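Summary of Year 1 activities. Much of the first year was spent building the evaluation harness for sequence design. The harness presents a backbone, in tokenized form, and records the residue chosen at every position. We chose the following record to illustrate the format because it has been used consistently in internal testing since the harness was completed.
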């Protein structure tokens, strides 16, 4: 074999698969990772700054980055209802009965996302610090489009976070 072929076959290509992941929330929330159907990895965009130098205009990356919110979809089973857990987290942010806001040190949580391989080994880990809910959609109920009776009730949530880092 040629030297190039040896190099190509020495580095095996194993793709990361979307369904091999685990999202960990603090135990105090009681949100089971089994009910998380979809979770987005971070999306970051940078602005640009235009600078003049020696009769030229140059663009450089702006120091402020824009972090997109994380979209998350949860299943809502009958036993261990996810809607109860999400509602309890929401009440830490704002209590509807009193109208009083919660303390950030209580409602902001650390969320860890682990991407796994075929052997259940963690190959990538993201940590989102000071994450909290900004939007909750408890979903629709109805018979339209549910002809076989297997459509599950889901909850869509939006998480905002202050910092994130990729651990590995």
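For this record, the design step produced the sequence shown next.
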């Amino acid at each position: 074999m040629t030297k190039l072929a040896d190099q190509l076959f020495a580095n095996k290509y194993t793709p990361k698969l979307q369904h091999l992941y685990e999202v960990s929330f603090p135990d105090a929330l009681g949100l089971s990772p089994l009910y998380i159907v979809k979770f987005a990895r971070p999306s970051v965009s940078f602005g640009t700054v235009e600078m003049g130098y020696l009769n030229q205009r140059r663009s450089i990356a702006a120091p402020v980055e824009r972090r997109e919110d994380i979209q998350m979809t949860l299943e809502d089973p009958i036993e261990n209802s996810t809607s109860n857990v999400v509602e309890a987290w929401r009440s830490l942010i704002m209590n509807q009965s009193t109208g009083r806001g919660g303390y950030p040190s209580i409602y902001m949580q650390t969320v860890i996302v682990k991407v796994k391989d075929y052997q259940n080994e963690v190959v990538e880990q993201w940590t989102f610090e000071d994450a909290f809910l900004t939007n909750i959609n408890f979903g629709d109920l109805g018979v339209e489009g549910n002809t076989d009776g297997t459509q599950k009730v889901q909850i869509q949530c939006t998480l905002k976070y202050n910092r994130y880092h990729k651990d590995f």
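The CA atoms of residues 91 and 99 lie 10 Å apart. Quantitative recovery figures across the full test set are reported in Table 2.
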